[in-house]
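**Backbone description:**
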Amino acid sequence: MLLLAAPLAMCSAAGARIDMHLVPGLGRVCHEAPRGESATAVDGSLFAVCRDASGRPVVARVTLDGAVRRIALAGLDARARRWFRARDLTWASDGALWFHDGGGEVVRISSGLDAKAFRLSSVARTSGLIAGRGGALWLTASSATGAQAPRAIVHLSATGAERRIAISRGSGAILPEAIADADGRGAWFREGVGRVGHVTVDGRHTTSAVSRDGRPVAVESDGTIAWLTFAPGQEVVRLGADGAEVSHTAVVPHAVSRPLPPGPGRGLDWSLCLLAASELCQLDLGQATLNTFDMAQPGAYLNADPLRGPGGALWTRDSKGHLLRVRADGQTLSYPLHPRHGNTINLLAASGAVLWMLEVNQHNRPHELTRVTTLPMRQLRRR
């Protein structure tokens, strides 16, 4: 893959240069390419869930220096080994990595790179992973498929100790992606139409009515919630730690169709969202204001979920083969990508230090892994 370090003329700005480095060796671990099953650690290393040459699910860890390590997923049953597809890779407070297969199998990789699988009994579906306190995990579980299946919020400790808090069948559908963490003390979620639910580690479950239906999108350290209502006429509703409404603030005329997780930093800070095929927005949850960015080249559309990556920028890819970078000041830079004929380029994962991209051939085999940074490697190592 050839990637030009100089940007196209969408913007002429200082700090436009990016550094790239091809990292060999992923193909020795991954026989088929990861499909959105990747994450970056605090040190910038890549964790990619894939399948080896024998068809077994494994994890490939790639460091910034290019060292590739295979992590076997021991403890999976025969069904899981055959059908396992990792979802919702989530970093725990103790540095461990959690993920699941959507069907009751949950995996934890410790900071020492030891993998352990936990099978949730009598569970047909899992979703909505968030990190809790002390390396623990919250998730949604149901005993059957379908909107009316009995559901529960599950708390898993770092050792796999499980606590389930049943949610009544008549409460309506729970949006798994709406679960939000209250600094490890509990979990908030949309519990049916116009209701917010809250559970705690000791098993308490409360529910409160909200004047407008929506979903929680951020939680302050004191437990205050930002609840984003559904369109039309969207608002940010602040809920107290008891679920009572504190204030309402109108957002913008636009419909925030798909909020992404809030950025790091100041609690009720900001969230990115997808407005249209080529338009992204930055929603300031504190001020309930919204800035829009038209990221794609004329006639193009975005075809990759945006990632927060090097320099705190937003990174994505458009349909004309450009890597797009939106800086904090709103300036958009575009870098042309040139994969080999018939190949595609996937954005795997990103952090504040690095963006990982993978060129994939027509048979979904990994071809070239690329590390993209905005700082030279010698400065990254000092971090």
In short: The chain is about 5% helix and 45% strand. Residues 2-14, 264-268, 377-383 have pLDDT under 50 and may be disordered. Residues 59 and 331 are 36 Å apart (CA to CA). The helical segments are 78-83, 377-382.
